Amino acid sequence: MSEKQMDAMAIADEVRSGKRSAVSFVNSALESARALNPALNGFTSITEERAILESKSMDTLVARGQDPGPLAGVPFAVKDLFDVEGITTLAGSKIDRDKPAATRDGTLVERMRLAGACLIGATNMDEYAYGFSTENSHYGPTRNPHGLAHIAGGSSGGSAAVVAADVVPVSLGSDTNGSIRVPSSLCGIFGLKPTYGRLSRGGSTPFCQSLDHVGPFARSTRDLALLLDVLSGPDPLDPACTTEIFEPALPELDKPWEGVRAGVLSGYFQKWSSPEARSAVAAVAKAIGAGNDVELPRVELARTAAYLITATEGANLHLPHLRTRPMDFDLATRDRFLAGALMPGAVYVQAQRFRSWFRREVGKILAETDILLTAATPITAPEIGQKFADFNGDRLNARQNMGLYTQPISFIGLPVVTVPVANVSRMPMGVMLIGAPNNEPLLLRAAHFLEKQGVAAAWDAGL
Amino acid sequence: MSEIELLGFMKAASEAIDLEIPDECEAGVLENLAKNFAMAKELLAFRLQEDEEQAPVFTP
Fold it and tell me: Are B55 and A304 inside 8 Å of each other by CB?
């Protein structure tokens, strides 16, 4: 493993033991960010001064023999919808440039800092998180480190790209309909979309509050588990954040694997799958001994309902600016927001009620099966600017349909670990491991098992 | 809904909520409305029990 490919735990081990300074890791990440950003366009801002200050303070703690935290000296990045003290949170928009700088860090940014991590910068995204491609007309497209002509996925494309390019070992993103899972899949890295309400969204720009989740990207499963543990905890700033206290996930990773029941999602979840997606699912299913195919009821309606809830809630949130500054929205979001503002209430209520029905029906299936598998994206990364793509014989809008498989799952808030599958395709392809609410430790254990078997591994972009 | 019906809906609904649809956006908004209503029809056709909860703050 090269120095650049060290995961967060390896970096923290070296800093904590005094083997290497936090400053040297942070300087290396900053150098890499400056060198690669002109090509990748992953960052919207680089917080150099802050990163250096934070790393110096880590080295001081180590020198004094004090505990610098489990993420001591680990460089990280956050999607530009998390508040970072001293800079304006853009959320990928032109409109929010007029907002004042944040006066304090968002909850998860603060928890990363308290654990010893050092913030390198904020990352590019689809405007207001409404997209799957990070082709942002205000800030330009983020490019996929594994093929610069290709999208990184979205909406957390910048956060995924800077991890995939080895600029930082971990980053934070958000996921309303697939915005962690799609870029994880397309960029060849691990991603965790936790259970709805598991991690606080305090101090982050919302998109669609009844569907918004936040979570980490990483190059290893142990880093995902560590970040889940570090970031967990109640937060009065997010009314949806659970007050339940959970056992740490990290110690669970190496527990015995036998007896876990896994199934492959069929029907809807295979209809649009490319050969690469099918191969990836088959490789994972074989490795973890997935049994029968499992079919979820009325999945197409779950996606429909998620789509309509998103359009309605998102439009309502932005209604003041849709009234006063419609032409300052990104063309990719504007007309969808305007149409969403006109949604009849009966449709929204039906969508929420259907959600309760769907949650209950899927809950019955999860009582019989511990882990459900499906491809995270039906196809590998399309090219930037590509309007249509072949989805197993259907020519569909490429931007809108990357979330075909992710959207019905986040609709009912289930936890998902996305694993990058090794050696099945020319461009990366990820598989979702889906479980019952709050069963992140089991999913992480499965992902760790796949990693140890060599079936799942972060891709090397070679940059 | 026909294009004319959608246009009528867009004009009436936007006026009712004081939302002006700029001329440059009309075609895109109509396209999205057509998609939304096609999806809405499918969703509304699904019969739910009367006591199906609404869950405005969703708990998984």
Answer: no
Interface of A with B in 273-332 (CB under 8 A): 298, 301, 304-305, 307-308, 311, 319, 322-323, 326-327
* Contact: A339, B29; criterion CB under 8 Å: yes
> Please, what is the end-to-end C-alpha distance for chain B in angstroms?
35
pTM to 2 decimal places: 0.97
What is the DSSP secondary structure assignment for residue A82, as one 8-state letter?
Answer: B
The per-residue b/e assignment along A398-427, b for 16 or more CB within 10 angstroms, e otherwise, is: bbebbbbbbbbbbbbbbbbbbbbbbebbeb
**Chain A residues closer than 8 Å to B42 by CB:** 301, 304
Q: Residue A226 and residue A5: Cα distance in Å, rounded?
A: 17
Distance (Å, rounded) from C-alpha A107 to C-alpha A113? 10
Q: Which residues of chain A have pLDDT under 50?
A: none
> What are the pLDDT digits (tens) for A206-227?
999 999 999 999 999 999 999 9
What is the spatial distance between Cα B17 and Cα A141, in angstroms, rounded to a whole number?
A: 34
* Cβ atoms of A414 and A362 closer than 8 Å: yes
Check whether the bond before A45 is cis (ω within 30° of 0): no
Alpha carbon of A81: minimum distance to chain B alpha carbons (Å): 22
- B26/A333 Cα distance (integer angstroms): 14
